């Protein structure tokens, strides 16, 4: 097929080449581990991880040793005060996204928030409002948005090659029935806040011109704990 135009790249102002983006990692759990593994596949001249923080200093130190990071902190507040950070990746548990995100945004730190951004629209609104008030970057970590296949699909849809998309059917399944965070309300559990967002963000991006839906209905099955 004929190549499709990709979204226009931002126009950078001429000037000296910038140094690497300096990352701080908030939490030393499995998702933060995976993020740093991925980040380290990129050239160190572009991205470098300079610090990690966890509620337990020992875990932060073990994480730092594993990845060769220069600094480890036993509190998120210490990471927020580190002067050598450009952006913080927040990989804490879902219920902590709002307070942790606000901590860094109020310190003027750019934030890449692991999905979901927060537990509900009111929490997301507070995060976005704080980022706008402080004039700092905030983004939800949907890595699929940056896949070449996704960019190609968006370009095809925007160029009319698919006609007018009316229906998206998606299936995504993992064996997570025994994972506590999926079924416990106190951990921000449920399929929608865990993996369901992938299909939902695709539908929002590809259907209806990319705007918010006029109406929304949800059908599902609830776990005995009350999560979806």
From TrEMBL:
Domain GFO/IDH/MocA-like oxidoreductase: 150-222
GO MF: D-xylose 1-dehydrogenase (NADP+) activity; nucleotide binding; trans-1,2-dihydrobenzene-1,2-diol dehydrogenase activity
A Pfam family assignment: GFO_IDH_MocA
Stored SUPFAM superfamilies: Glyceraldehyde-3-phosphate dehydrogenase-like, C-terminal domain (SSF55347), NAD(P)-binding Rossmann-fold domains (SSF51735)
Enzyme class at the top of the EC tree: oxidoreductase
EC number: 1.1.1.179, 1.3.1.20
Catalytic activity: (1R,2R)-1,2-dihydrobenzene-1,2-diol + NADP(+) = catechol + NADPH + H(+); D-xylose + NADP(+) = D-xylono-1,5-lactone + NADPH + H(+)
Superkingdom, taxonomy of origin: Eukaryota
Record-level GO BP terms: D-xylose catabolic process
Keywords: Oxidoreductase
Residue ranges occupied by any Gfo/Idh/MocA-like oxidoreductase N-terminal domain in the UniProt entry: 22-142
Coiled coil, from the record: none
Listed InterPro entries: Gfo/Idh/MocA-like_OxRdtase_N, Gfo/Idh/MocA_domain, GFO_IDH_MocA-like_dom, NAD(P)-bd_dom_sf
Family designation: Belongs to the Gfo/Idh/MocA family.
Protein name per its UniProtKB record: Trans-1,2-dihydrobenzene-1,2-diol dehydrogenase
Species of origin: Callaeas wilsoni (North Island kokako)
Gene: Dhdh
